[in-house]
Write a structure and sequence with these properties.
Distance between the termini: 116 Å
Largest sheet: none
Strand content: under 5%
Structural class: mainly alpha
Oligomer: single chain
Order of helices and strands: HHHHH
Helix content: over 70%
Protein backbone atom coordinates (compact mmCIF):
# COMPACT_ATOMS: atom_id res chain seq x y z
CA UNK A 1 0.00 0.00 0.00
CA UNK A 2 2.85 2.37 0.82
CA UNK A 3 4.15 1.70 -2.70
CA UNK A 4 0.93 3.07 -4.21
CA UNK A 5 0.63 6.07 -1.90
CA UNK A 6 4.17 7.16 -2.65
CA UNK A 7 3.73 6.72 -6.38
CA UNK A 8 0.33 8.44 -6.51
CA UNK A 9 1.26 11.38 -4.32
CA UNK A 10 4.55 12.11 -6.07
CA UNK A 11 4.35 14.44 -8.97
CA UNK A 12 1.84 16.99 -10.01
CA UNK A 13 0.82 19.65 -7.57
CA UNK A 14 -2.54 21.33 -7.22
CA UNK A 15 -1.44 24.54 -8.97
CA UNK A 16 -0.75 22.66 -12.23
CA UNK A 17 -4.53 22.31 -12.56
CA UNK A 18 -5.33 25.99 -12.09
CA UNK A 19 -7.20 27.36 -15.11
CA UNK A 20 -7.60 23.86 -16.56
CA UNK A 21 -10.81 22.05 -17.46
CA UNK A 22 -10.11 19.35 -14.85
CA UNK A 23 -9.66 20.30 -11.21
CA UNK A 24 -7.01 18.72 -9.01
CA UNK A 25 -9.77 16.93 -7.07
CA UNK A 26 -11.23 15.48 -10.28
CA UNK A 27 -7.76 14.47 -11.36
CA UNK A 28 -7.02 12.45 -8.21
CA UNK A 29 -10.54 11.05 -8.08
CA UNK A 30 -10.98 9.99 -11.71
CA UNK A 31 -7.68 10.12 -13.59
CA UNK A 32 -5.16 9.00 -11.00
CA UNK A 33 -7.25 7.35 -8.33
CA UNK A 34 -4.87 5.49 -6.01
CA UNK A 35 -7.47 2.76 -5.44
CA UNK A 36 -7.48 1.92 -9.13
CA UNK A 37 -3.73 1.45 -8.96
CA UNK A 38 -4.11 -0.76 -5.88
CA UNK A 39 -6.77 -2.88 -7.61
CA UNK A 40 -4.52 -3.27 -10.63
CA UNK A 41 -1.56 -4.36 -8.47
CA UNK A 42 -3.77 -6.88 -6.65
CA UNK A 43 -5.04 -8.15 -10.02
CA UNK A 44 -1.47 -8.62 -11.25
CA UNK A 45 -0.49 -10.47 -8.06
CA UNK A 46 -3.46 -12.85 -8.02
CA UNK A 47 -3.82 -13.46 -11.75
CA UNK A 48 -2.09 -16.44 -13.35
CA UNK A 49 1.04 -15.17 -15.13
CA UNK A 50 0.16 -17.12 -18.26
CA UNK A 51 -3.07 -15.10 -18.52
CA UNK A 52 -1.36 -11.69 -18.35
CA UNK A 53 -1.96 -9.12 -21.05
CA UNK A 54 1.02 -7.15 -22.34
CA UNK A 55 0.52 -4.24 -19.93
CA UNK A 56 -0.04 -6.63 -17.00
CA UNK A 57 3.22 -8.46 -17.78
CA UNK A 58 5.05 -5.16 -17.96
CA UNK A 59 3.65 -3.88 -14.66
CA UNK A 60 4.24 -7.25 -12.92
CA UNK A 61 7.91 -7.07 -13.92
CA UNK A 62 8.16 -3.44 -12.80
CA UNK A 63 6.61 -4.31 -9.42
CA UNK A 64 8.97 -7.26 -9.02
CA UNK A 65 11.90 -4.90 -9.64
CA UNK A 66 10.40 -2.25 -7.30
CA UNK A 67 10.43 0.16 -10.22
CA UNK A 68 7.85 2.97 -10.14
CA UNK A 69 8.39 4.11 -13.72
CA UNK A 70 5.08 2.62 -14.80
CA UNK A 71 3.23 5.26 -12.79
CA UNK A 72 2.46 8.37 -14.84
CA UNK A 73 4.33 10.71 -12.52
CA UNK A 74 4.49 14.38 -13.43
CA UNK A 75 1.95 13.70 -16.19
CA UNK A 76 -1.81 13.82 -16.57
CA UNK A 77 -3.90 13.12 -19.64
CA UNK A 78 -6.07 16.18 -18.96
CA UNK A 79 -3.01 18.44 -18.88
CA UNK A 80 -1.57 16.92 -22.03
CA UNK A 81 -4.86 17.16 -23.90
CA UNK A 82 -5.33 20.75 -22.74
CA UNK A 83 -1.85 21.61 -23.97
CA UNK A 84 -2.72 19.93 -27.23
CA UNK A 85 -5.96 21.88 -27.41
CA UNK A 86 -4.03 25.07 -26.73
CA UNK A 87 -1.64 24.25 -29.53
CA UNK A 88 -4.56 23.38 -31.81
CA UNK A 89 -6.24 26.70 -30.96
CA UNK A 90 -3.02 28.54 -31.67
CA UNK A 91 -2.67 26.73 -34.99
CA UNK A 92 -6.29 27.55 -35.86
CA UNK A 93 -5.71 31.23 -34.96
CA UNK A 94 -2.59 31.34 -37.10
CA UNK A 95 -4.44 29.63 -39.95
CA UNK A 96 -7.27 32.17 -39.65
CA UNK A 97 -4.77 35.04 -39.73
CA UNK A 98 -3.03 33.50 -42.70
CA UNK A 99 -6.34 33.08 -44.52
CA UNK A 100 -7.38 36.68 -43.88
CA UNK A 101 -3.94 37.89 -44.97
CA UNK A 102 -4.20 35.83 -48.15
CA UNK A 103 -7.65 37.32 -48.85
CA UNK A 104 -6.28 40.80 -48.29
CA UNK A 105 -3.32 40.13 -50.60
CA UNK A 106 -5.70 38.75 -53.22
CA UNK A 107 -7.95 41.81 -52.92
CA UNK A 108 -5.00 44.20 -53.13
CA UNK A 109 -3.61 42.31 -56.13
CA UNK A 110 -6.99 42.61 -57.83
CA UNK A 111 -7.10 46.36 -57.13
CA UNK A 112 -3.55 46.76 -58.41
CA UNK A 113 -4.44 44.94 -61.63
CA UNK A 114 -7.48 47.20 -62.08
CA UNK A 115 -5.30 50.28 -61.61
CA UNK A 116 -2.80 48.94 -64.14
CA UNK A 117 -5.60 48.40 -66.66
CA UNK A 118 -6.93 51.91 -66.06
CA UNK A 119 -3.45 53.38 -66.49
CA UNK A 120 -2.96 51.44 -69.72
CA UNK A 121 -6.33 52.66 -71.04
CA UNK A 122 -5.48 56.25 -70.13
CA UNK A 123 -2.13 55.97 -71.92
CA UNK A 124 -3.85 54.57 -75.01
CA UNK A 125 -6.41 57.40 -74.95
CA UNK A 126 -3.69 60.00 -74.58
CA UNK A 127 -1.71 58.45 -77.40
CA UNK A 128 -4.82 58.40 -79.62
CA UNK A 129 -5.64 61.97 -78.67
CA UNK A 130 -2.05 62.98 -79.21
CA UNK A 131 -2.06 61.23 -82.57
CA UNK A 132 -5.36 62.89 -83.46
CA UNK A 133 -3.99 66.26 -82.31
CA UNK A 134 -0.84 65.73 -84.37
CA UNK A 135 -2.94 64.82 -87.45
CA UNK A 136 -5.27 67.81 -86.91
CA UNK A 137 -2.28 70.13 -86.60
CA UNK A 138 -0.74 68.69 -89.77
CA UNK A 139 -4.00 69.01 -91.74
CA UNK A 140 -4.43 72.68 -90.85
Amino acid sequence: MHYILVACTLGLERDKFDNKTVSFEEHIKYEHNMWNYLYFIVLVRVKNKTDYTGPESYVAQMIKNKNLDWFPRMRAMSLVSNEGEGEQNEIRNLQDKLNSTMKLVSHLTSQLNELKEQMTEQRKRRQRMGFVDVQNTMNH
